[in-house]
Amino acid sequence: MRLTRLVLRDLRNLAEVELHPGPGLNLLVGPNGAGKTSILEGLHLLAYGRSFRGRVRDGLVRTGQDAVNVFAEWELEGGRGEHRAGLRHAGNHWEARIDGTPVAHLGELCAAFMVVTFEPGSHALVSGGGEPRRRFVDWGLFHVEQDFLPVWRRYSRALKQRNALLKSGAGAGQIAAWDRELATAGEELTRRRALYLDRLQERLTPVAGALAPLLGRMSLEFDPGWRRSDLSLADALAVAGDRDRMLGHTTVGPHRADWKLVLSEKERGEALSRGQAKLAALSCLFAQAADCADERGDWPVIALDDLASELDAAHRQRVLDYLDATPAQVFITGTDEPETVRSTATAVVFHVEQGRVSRRE
Ligand SMILES: Nc1ncnc2c1ncn2[C@@H]1O[C@H](COP(=O)(O)OP(=O)(O)O)[C@@H](O)[C@H]1O
Ligand SMILES: [Mg+2]
């Protein structure tokens, strides 16, 4: 998909900006504090219903204003349609429309408007806790499998019920009544996550080779959240029953799933430098975008905040070359324009200064 128009109102220091991005690489260049990251935050907000820099009510809305507004128009690959969406978010309430129709759940925006974002917190994909990695896998599944969301919801609902019973000190029999539902939905969720990671592995190998050949082969290792190789989820829940009742929550299952990236040129457990972690996380993100493109016939928009930081010139160039070779629309922020971009025919440069944006012709 390709964004053709983006309007942001009252987002941090941006009173009102309007961009008409190019189909390929778009660079947002300007000094610190100009509003570059805020522009990507606007894109991210429309795609995810939240910011990557904390809650909407914690400063996303421009000081003195009631709400932030984001409006976008985009077209799908191969003339498969044009769409528009708008979101007004006031922190504790929001309203949104897609093609003029009111939206009931923010997930509808997420389904329509696909953006993958790399921001400073994205390092967590390789170095943080399991939560961002589960979210990463589920984002991919949500976008490529239409019937994934009901499975995910079914599992989440059953987990919530079982946890509520555990917390209230319910007896073993009452708890076990939920195990069946949890196990059925959980096995299905896990089956899909495992297949997804297998597929992602195929995409990751060429991306990693292009971005960070010195890190060697990158392998994704799935941890389903219980000892799946010797136990069904139903059995694992039964085994954990007493402990779960003592602790007051469910200790095994897909809500504890995780995956990790193993690099052939690194010892297990050896810490990566910030730059290496960034390359590894970027590789995962691009593999996911490529998978989305293959499965749906449409690339998500790729937004990279401060690409240059932590990367040396050669690796920066590798990333740009990789992106240039994909049909994806890309937004990159930075304080300087990369030297080589001048020669890229499709690159569009926007200057951002004190909350204002101008396109360099
Ligand atoms: N709620 C707000 N209202 C007004 N200005 C804000 C608000 N929140 C942050 N800012 C300011 O917005 C500016 C833009 O920040 P940012 O987008 O991070 O800049 P950049 O990425 O270009 O360095 C900063 O100067 C920041 O102080
Ligand atoms: Mg910034």
TrEMBL record:
Its main location: cytoplasm. InterPro entries: DNA-binding_RecF, DNA-binding_RecF_CS, P-loop_NTPase, RecF/RecN/SMC_N, RecF_2. Pfam families: SMC_N. It comes from the Bacteria. GO terms for molecular function: ATP binding; single-stranded DNA binding. Keywords: ATP-binding, Cytoplasm, DNA damage, DNA repair, DNA replication, DNA-binding, Nucleotide-binding, SOS response. It is found in: Cytoplasm. GO terms for cellular component: cytoplasm. GO terms for biological process: DNA replication; DNA synthesis involved in DNA repair; double-strand break repair; SOS response. Residues 3-356 form the RecF/RecN/SMC N-terminal domain. ATP binds at G30, P31, N32, G33, A34, G35, K36, T37. The RecF protein is involved in DNA metabolism; it is required for DNA replication and normal SOS inducibility. RecF binds preferentially to single-stranded, linear DNA. It also seems to bind ATP. Belongs to the RecF family. This is DNA replication and repair protein RecF. The lineage of its organism: Bacteria, Pseudomonadati, Pseudomonadota, Gammaproteobacteria, Lysobacterales. The gene is recF.
